Amino acid sequence: MIRFKPGAPRGAPPRFLSRLRSLAVPTAWSAVAVAHRLTCPLARDDALGARLVSSAVLCAVGTGIVLHIRRRMLREVRSARRIAEAAQNVLLRPPPPRVDGLAVAAVHLSADPGARIGGDLYEVTATEHGVRAVIGDVRGHGIGAVGTGAAVLGSFREAVHDEEDLAGVLRRLERAMDRHLRERVHSERDMEDGAPAAEEFVTVLLLEILPDGEVHALNCGHPWPHRLTGAGAEPLARADPLPPLGPFPLPGELPTAACGRLLPGDILVLHTDGAEEARDADGRFFPLRDVLAEAARERPRTPQAVLRTVLTALLDHSVGPPKDDVALLILRNERCSPPTRQPRGVTRSATADR
C-alpha cells in the first residue's frame, strides 16, 4: 500500500518529490540573495565598504549553492556506483576460491574506464558431471558487449547442470545466442561500437574436469588455454577450433577434444585474446607464453601467484589501460589423488551393491 505524506499531491511521483526537496536549499539561498538586494541598505550603497559586504554575501550564497549541488551529485554518483557494482557482481561474479578440489583465481580488465565488466566472460561451476568452466570473448568490448555476454553466461549457468555432456551445453549456448541476436534485430538497435547484430559473435571455450583429472574441451574460435607444470607451459590442445557462435550454425556432430589429465599441482590458465594481443609502445605483442613459463617455475605456484605475475607483466608491457577487454581464469588441481572413475549415471550406492 502506498502512503502519501500530508500535503503531498496524490499521484505525485516519488522522484518528482525528491527533486522538489533538492531544490529547497538552492531556492532558500537565492531568496537570501534577493532579500539582501531589495531590503538591505548596504546593497544600494555605493561606498567601498558596502560593496565589499554585498560581494561577500553574494559569494557566500553562490558557495552554498555550489556545495549543495556538489553534495547531491556525489550522493547520486555513489548510489549509481553501488547499483552498478551489484549488477556487475551478478553478471560476472567472482568465482569461489575453491571448486570441488580445484583452486580458482580470476580477473577481468575492461577496456572502458571505470567499468568492471565488458565483452569477456568466465564462470566455473561444480556439477554432478564434473567441474565445468567457460571463458568467452564477445565481438567488441566494454559496455556495448555486456548484453551478449549476459545471454551466454545465463544459458551456461543452467545448461551445465542439465546437460550430461559438453556438446549439449554448447547447443544450449548456441540457442541462447540465436535468441539474443533475433531480439536485437527486432529492436533495431546496434551496439555502441557501431556493429550491426548480423555481425555479432562470441568465441567460447568449454572445459570439463572430471574427478580423476581428465580434461575434455569444446572450442568455438577461442584461444586454447595453457597447462602449467613443473616443466613449463604448453597449450592444452592444438586441434582446430569450431567457428564462433553467431555467424554460422554449429555442425551436426560436436566432437569433444580429450586433453589428457590435469595432475595434482598442475595449473590451467584460460584467457581471452586481449592478453595475447596487448601491445607495447613499439607495437610488439605481449609474450604470454614466455610469462607463463616463468610463472610455472616460481614458488609458490598458486593461482593467485600466477595471476599476479601475469597481470604485473601485462600492465608493464602495455602503455596505459588495455585497448581490449582481458579476462584470465586460472585453475589448479589440489586434489590429493585421483578417485576411481565411475560410469556416468551410476550412483555410488548402486556401484557398492554390485
> Mind describing the biggest β-sheet?
6 strands, antiparallel
CATH architecture of the largest domain: 4-Layer Sandwich
Q: Into which percent range does the helicity of residues fall?
A: 40-55%
Order of helices and strands: HHHEEEEHHEEEEEEHHHEH
- Total helices: the number is 9
Spans of at least 5 consecutive residues whose pLDDT stays below 50 are 1-9, 343-354
CATH topology of the largest domain: Phosphatase 2c, domain 1
CATH superfamily grouping of the largest domain = PPM-type phosphatase domain
Shape, per Cα inertia axes: elongated
Structural class: alpha+beta
Binned strand content: 15-25%
Rg: 29 Å
Strands side by side in the biggest sheet: 1-2-11-10-7-8
Write a short abstract of this structure:
The protein is α+β, with helices and mostly antiparallel strands. Helix content is 40%, strand content 19%.
